[in-house]
Amino acid sequence: MSTQQLEAMGVDVNDIPLAMPPPGVTQNLAHPASRTYQIYIVSAIFLALTVSFMLVGIITYTGITIAAESEPGSGKHIWDTTIGDYSNEGFVMSVVGTAIYGPVIFFVKLALFFLFLHLFGRLRWMRYLVWFGITITGCFYISGIAVVFGLCAPRDGKTWLEMSLTPQCRNLEGYGIAQGTMNLVSDFYLLIIPIPAVLSLQLPQKKKLGVIAIFMTGFFACVVSTVALGLRIIYNKTEDITWNVVTLYIMT
Q1: What is the three-class DSSP state of 81?
Q2: pLDDT tens track for 94-118
Q3: Which residues have CB under 8 Å from 173's CB, separation 6+?
Q4: Which residue has the higher pLDDT, 142 or 72?
Q5: What would the mean pLDDT of 170-199 be, rounded to a whole number?
Q6: pTM of the model
Q7: Of 12, 117, 137, 166, which is least surrounded by CB within 10 A?
Q8: Alpha carbon distance 239, 93 (integer Å)
Q9: Sequence-distant (≥ 6) Cβ neighbours of residue 145 within 8 angstroms
């Protein structure tokens, strides 16, 4: 019997339970127990984690980047720059900024992975894809700290600034290309994996397309990663790194 038919018979549908309670359980339609608050709590926690990861990462990296690029030689052509334009402390900040760039990017991506886990965690295959993405990106970006300091940390009595001139530290350019490649691959990964989940939702076709369109705004990140990787490859073939590094910092 439909709701309309019951109402036509004078029956209040608000007094009809969807099912009878099990033996020993007292029905309480007026003040029923509810677990809705748990949804609010979990949603608030995931939202806080997402925002916190993104803000901490962006603020930390931006602060160190500004400190590193405040050196007098930054932003000028290399032939207009002298050794005296750079300090040992400035190069330390530059190395630290390079080292934490990977973890910062990881925390931003981690926030998005957590968001997908919250929205589509009921799908087993989505949970697998999310944790796979977290594991791969986490291992790569976090290990970058050891790579950067392993290549450019002082040794054999050299200062940080003297290490910057060694072929060993110049190998950091190759790691930059590898990191740019991971940025690009992970951005496309984050762009693609929610699409099948959205299509599986019980929504009208127009609403599904609308939700997909929102996620597709991440395509801008893919474009930026593609351009940044291309610039890294091109600039690694030039000597004017003090000039070109500004573009790289803007793109990354």
Answers
A1: coil
A2: 788 788 888 888 988 888 898 888 8
A3: 232, 236
A4: 142
A5: 89
A6: 0.70
A7: 12
A8: 22
A9: 99, 100, 102, 103
Positive or negative, the Cα torsion across 241, 244, 250, 252? negative
pLDDT of residue 72: 53
The CA distance from 227 to 237, in Å, is 16
Helical residues (DSSP H) of the chain, grouped into ranges: 3-8, 36-68, 88-120, 124-152, 160-163, 167-170, 172-192, 194-199, 205-215, 219-235, 241-251
Rounded to whole angstroms, the Cα distance separating 39 from 49 reads 15
70-99 pLDDT, tens digit each: 555 667 777 777 766 666 777 787 788 788
Residue 12 Ramachandran class (φ > 0 left, ψ -120 to 50 alpha, else beta):
beta
* Helix 219-235, helix 172-192: angle, nearest 10: 160
Residue 239, judged by CB atoms within 10 A of its CB (0-12, 13-18, 19+), counts as exposed
Place of tokens 């968001």: 115
**209 phi, psi to nearest 5 deg:** -65, -35
Between 172-192 and 124-152, two packed helices, what is the crossing angle to 10 degrees?
Answer: 170
Report residue 1 as tokens: 């019997």
Report CA-CA distances (Å) from 203 to 39, 192, 209.
21, 19, 10
Written as one string, the DSSP assignment of 94-156 is: HHHHHHHHHHHHHHHHHHHHHHHHHHHTTSHHHHHHHHHHHHHHHHHHHHHHHHHHHHHS--T
